[in-house]
Amino acid sequence: MHNQIQLPATSPFQHDQVLAIAISAVHCQYGGYHQEAPQYHEEQYYDPPHYQFHYDVRDEHTGDIKSQHEQREGDHTQGEYSLVEPDGSLRVVKYVVEGKSGFQAEVQKENGKYKPAPEPSYRKPEPSYYKPRY
């Protein structure tokens, strides 16, 4: 005699219930409650820029004479720089930057303040005659 298991008869309605429970179990496993991972968001707050600087270079030997100073508070920047041109004149530039108006400069030139830079000179090198000994 063969071993047989006899199951009770099922109706199509019971079969649909079992299928619905199985599908629900699968959906609960993969599509259940889901919370987004927290996103890091850093608010950046900066104080309005504020600085001031100044420098001077005065090398009479090389003729390198220049200076600059500038200060800024928020969107307002103003300053001045000067330099000695090769012709000996002094160029002074005063400038202002105000918000969206851009860079506005006033240029002044003062003649005869310094002696002009020497003209560049070039001297052709003397030929060199060298006969190596072998």
TrEMBL record:
Please, which domain of life does this record's source organism belong to?
Answer: Eukaryota
Compositional bias annotation for Basic and acidic residues: 58-78
- One MF term in GO for this entry? structural constituent of cuticle
- One of its Pfam families is Chitin_bind_4
GO cellular component terms given for this protein: extracellular matrix; extracellular space
Q: Which InterPro entries match?
A: Insect_cuticle, Insect_Cuticle_Struc_Prot
Which keywords label this protein? Cuticle
Segments of this protein annotated with the region Disordered: 58-84, 107-134
Q: What is this protein called?
A: Uncharacterized protein
